[in-house]
Write a structure and sequence with these properties.
Length: 113
C-alpha cells in the first residue's frame, strides 16, 4: 500500500506504507481487513480521503466494505491505466482474430493458383 499526499506548498509526496503477503483467498473481506489494519497502524484512518484500486471485483468490494464498516468518508477511484489496459487487450484480441482471418484468405487464394 502506498500513500500519496500534497504538502503545504502543493508538492506531491509518496511513501510505501506496507508490502505484506496476503494469504489466499483474496476476497474483498480479507483485503478490507488488511487495508484497515494498515491504515490503523499508520494512524491514517481520519486522513484517508480516496482509495485508488484496479477494477478487480475483490478490490471494489474491499473498498466498499471499508467504507461501510470503518471509514464512511472515503471515496473509491478506479485506476484509469488498468481500465485502459483492459480495453487495449480486448481490442488486441479482436485484431488477432481479424489478422487470422486475413491470413486464412491469403492461403485460400494462393491455393487457387
Amino acid at each position: 500500500m502506498t500513500a500519496i499526499w500534497l504538502t503545504a506548498d502543493f508538492k506531491f509526496q509518496e511513501a510505501l506504507l506496507s508490502c505484506n503477503h496476503l494469504p489466499y483467498p483474496h476476497t474483498g473481506e480479507v483485503i478490507c481487513k488488511e487495508l484497515f489494519q494498515i491504515l490503523e497502524s499508520w494512524n491514517l484512518k481520519s486522513t484517508t480521503f480516496t482509495v485508488v484500486t484496479d477494477n478487480g471485483i475483490n478490490m471494489v468490494k474491499a473498498v466498499c466494505l471499508l467504507k461501510e464498516n470503518y471509514l464512511d468518508q472515503i471515496q473509491h477511484q478506479s485506476y484509469i491505466m488498468h481500465t485502459l489496459q483492459l480495453s487495449v487487450m480486448e481490442d488486441l484480441k479482436q485484431c488477432k482474430a481479424f489478422h487470422h482471418q486475413i491470413k486464412s484468405l491469403q492461403i485460400f487464394f494462393r491455393l487457387l493458383k
